[in-house]
Amino acid sequence: MRSSRARFKSHRVLAIVAVAFLLLSAHRVRRAQAVTFDLTYLPGNGVAPVTDPTGSRLSAHLAAAAAEWSDLIKDDFQIEVNYWWGDRPDGVAASTTLLTESPDGTRMLKATIEFDPAPSANNTVFNYFFDPTPGVHEEFDLQQQLYRDLSAADQSAIYQATAATPLLEAGYAGPTNLVAQQNNLDLYSYVLHELGHVMGVSGQLSKGVDQQLDGDFDLPTTLLAGYEMAVLNNGSGHLASGAAGDALLQRSFPAGMRFLPSATDVLATSSVSQWNQIDLRRKDLLAGASWASAANWAGARLPDAADDAYVRLGGAIDLDGPAVARNLLVAGGTHLRTGPHTLDVVGDARIDSDGSFPFARLTVETGGTLLADVVRVQGAQLELDGGSVQSATDITVEQVSNSGSITGSGLVNVGRRLTNNGIISAANDELLTFTTPQTGNAFDLDGGGTGNVRALAGDLRFEGRVFPFAGLMSIGAGRTLSVTEGWTLMNGGRAALIGSGSQAAVLDGGTVEVRGDVVANLDSRIAAPIVLQASGLLSVPDADDRLTLGTSLADAIDYAGGTVSGLGTLRHNGNVNVRSGATQRLQVGTLDWDGSTGAATTLNSEATLIVDVEQLSDAYDGNVDLHSATLDVATSAGLWQYRGQMRLNTDGSGTSTLRGALMELGPNGSLEVRGEANFEAPLQLDGSATLDGTANFQHPVGVGGSLQAIAGHSRYVDLALSPGSSLQIAGGTVEISNFNRDASASIDLQGGTLVLDGGDGRLNSSFAYGSLESSTPRVEVRNGGDLAATFSWSVGHAAETQAMLVVAGASSDGSRRSTLRGTGGGAGADFIVGNAGVGAA
After folding, report:
1. Of the candidates 65, 330, 347, 467, which lies 20 to 30 Å from 105 by C-alpha distance?
2. Three-class SS of residue 596?
3. Given its phi and psi angles, is residue 652 left (phi above 0), alpha (psi -120 to 50 degrees) or beta?
4. 170 or 252: which leads in pLDDT
5. Cα–Cα distance between 273 and 494 in angstroms, integer?
């Protein structure tokens, strides 16, 4: 409800009297091909307010208002206006008086305007808001009012229409956002209003009298795309306002509001003064299917770089040529199509819908370009069909009732930031690319966490940095989503890779840090380096699902403790790294550990890798390095095959552990131990094993290849040498509880000590003992051990070989004596026998 309105007064002058005025200031407001004003401030005709003693502030408002009317009406015409502050007895804020009119009575040639310094209404005296920048409206929240926005009662109270357009602008106004000015009158609105009388909405002009007699101002149909409408007057040279109309030329204004010329106001002036060259600030497409036809626009003029263009007629509209606007709104279910043309929007390009169908849509077609400072999509669709979008600053997408998207194929360049609270979706079986000149984060693909990104009907590519993503990302079969820079899938975020039996869904680009969920269906690939954080999930839910990580060794797989689960297959093509202190479990149906690249695995300090799978797809050929770490492998078959190079504690320090199922080291595989190693799994060593540290073998070890001890202390609960295998002791101590050697196996003691400690050992053929003069080999049978040799054994003389055979000590409980049994002994051999027996087998 509006109250406390200050009023205007306008009266017809029947006799023009020449009066001499003291001229203080005068200036002419001119525009090329436009109405021009000769403005003169006359002091002495009244008392100026103390807030504007020289009239300079009033003059600034007159100059700005005259410039605005000149921009609206391009007819070449000149009007002289004298104005002043005058103390009016009726309290009316302002009054315009006609002095001279054109011969046909349609236009004012000269007029005066008097402004009351202290207008009043309802016994209230008002102050003015003097705008320091009257042509700029940042102090007010202005809104457009259309014919369709009015109530049915107000439509009837303000207009008469044979054929009405719902898109006619009925008003353009809004309240101040300055608390201190809420009870003051906006001087600029009053000045614009009075000049509106000068421009033709007046009962003083002879033509205006004719209009007033029939009760309305007929709006020219040629300026209204053929629609037939008239705006009622209230009998005093003003437009009817109804209960809530916002026309500038209504009779009164409330405090704290600004009113600007609307299409209704401007066309009403043309009704009387017959202006033909109308250039509305806000142009609505009222009819037709072509932007390029001026007759389709309000005012019968195409938008230019100074105009706001509104395309909300509905249906399909074609650009049909290059087009330009200051700001653009596509709404009302309208589909605007560029064709191969450029649409240049200086400011904001908005595509808006309220969520109801049909949605507004702007399609940038092949060869076409949308240029804008800012692009805003709200509940509507920005579609690229081979065209390009260039935003100098920002692009935003907002969803309304599950609608709001950028879709299609083409190029989108984002000057500063893309914020997606809706859907970004590739289409047309082609590529939709987003680029940016920014070096920092530019693509906010989930906005407030609700944004969706879809590569289901085409490929998506983001060339630039992406903000951490917590929305939904979907990639379809045969589709690729690329992010060229590293990015993070956050907690709550989800990447759904939906491949098929023959076509993969591919996520590629820079390093992907996974803190959220990646779910792979059928054939899916992450063709990029990946970091799986503790909160992250890699899921292959069903047995026919496959997730491949990396395309080459350079696509590193960095595990930091996240969850890897499902019944499907996980393949590593990138080198695997388990971070220090992390426990990483791979719990899938099938693990292709080294993929097609022979990927290596590195476990850093205090890291644990648990491979808990139904099966490995084949033998693991990649290298494995444990740096004071734990590797635990379990398969349903109870074994796994390894054919690479496994190295434990390469720097010679720390303790590493291998546990789980039987590891079969293939003929081409190798095992190297430094530092300390605990083997809590059975081993079959058909390749080569080198021990240069402390090794504790807590399960049976079978040797089908070569086992070499060069230093340190290794302990076996059970060691068996298979045919053709070899045990070489070049240094350190090899301690065996239970020892069995096939006849074709060889034992070479170049140094160090072979200890049979409390177990039974059987030597089935000869072995070289003390063969190197510089070595000091030693065999000990102790703690109740029993070494049986079914062959002749010999020990070189200590003086020659420094070799020594020691049989010493009973078992700890005294129940057994250590025994060496064989077919004979060598001459000159050194024996140390203590509490033991030596005899023939």
Report:
1. 65
2. coil
3. left
4. 170
5. 64
| Residue at 541: amino acid letter | P
What percent of the chain is predicted at pLDDT more than 70?
Answer: 85
User: Among candidates 142, 228, 243, which has minimal Cα distance to 192?
Assistant: 142
**Distance from C-alpha of 727 to C-alpha of 723, rounded to nearest angstrom:** 12
- Where is 83: in which H helix or E strand? strand 77-85
pLDDT tens string 159-208: 999 999 999 999 999 999 999 999 999 999 999 999 999 999 998 999 87
Which of these, 490, 458, 457, 486, lies nearest to 472 by C-alpha position?
Answer: 490
**What letters, b where the CB count within 10 A reaches 16 and e where it falls short, cover 444-471?**
bbbbeeebbbbbbbbbbbbbbbbbbbbb
Q: In this structure, how many other beta carbons lie within 10 angstroms of the beta carbon of residue 53?
A: 12
Rg of the chain's alpha carbons, rounded to an integer? 46
Dist. CA 430–CA 498, nearest whole Å: 18
Q: Is the pLDDT of residue 5 over 70?
A: no
- Dist. CA 535–CA 532, nearest whole Å: 8
Helix (H) or strand (E) holding 624: strand 624-626
How does pLDDT run across 562-599, given as a tens digit for each residue? 999 999 999 999 999 999 999 999 999 999 999 999 99
- Asked if residue 275 has pLDDT above 80, the reply is yes
Pick from 35, 31, 26, 44: which is nearest to 195 by CA? 35
Residue 712 falls in which region: left (phi positive, over 0), alpha (psi -120 to 50) or beta: left
| Nearest residue to 535 (alpha-carbon basis) of 517, 548, 558, 557 | 517
The region, left, alpha or beta by phi > 0 then psi within -120 to 50, assigned to residue 26 is beta
Looking only at the bridges linking them, the beta strands covering 739-741 and 323-325 are unpaired
Cα of 800 vs its chain's centroid, Å: 79
Query: What pLDDT is attached to residue 809?
Result: 45
Element of type H or E holding 28: strand 25-29
Tell me the C-alpha distance between 99 and 40, whole Å: 14
Is the separation of the CB atoms in 695 and 673 below 8 Å?
A: yes
Q: Does residue 773 contact residue 801 with C-beta atoms inside 8 Å?
A: yes
Q: Residue 62: helix, strand or coil by DSSP?
A: helix
Determine the residue type at 41.
Answer: Y
Spell out a b/e string for 222-232, using b for 16 or more CB atoms within 10 Å of the CB, else e: ebbbebebbbb
Per DSSP, the residues of 551-591 read SSTTS-EEESS-EEEESSEEEE-SPEEE-TT-EEEEE-SEE
Q: Is 206 helix (H, G, I), strand (E, B) or coil?
A: helix
Q: Do residues 200 and 238 lie in contact, with contact meaning Cβ atoms separated by under 8 Å? A: no
What percent of the chain lies above the pLDDT cut of 90? 77
Residue 597 DSSP class: T
Which pair of tokens denotes residue 112?
């005066």
176 secondary structure, DSSP code: B
Strands 778-782 and 753-757: parallel
Strand (E) or helix (H) holding 801 = helix 798-801
The first and second tokens of residue 826, run together, are: 């060598």
Rounded to an integer, what distance in angstroms lies between the CA atom of residue 610 and that of residue 598? Answer: 19
Of 250, 236, 246, nearest in space to 208 by CA? 236
Give the list of residues 6+ apart from residue 749 with CB closer than 8 angstroms, or none: 728, 729, 767, 768, 769, 770, 771, 775, 777, 778, 779, 803
Place of tokens 């030693």: 778
Residue 756: pLDDT band by 50, 70, 90 thresholds?
low
- CA-nearest of 289, 414, 390, 307 to 342 is 390
Decide if pLDDT at 805 tops 70: no
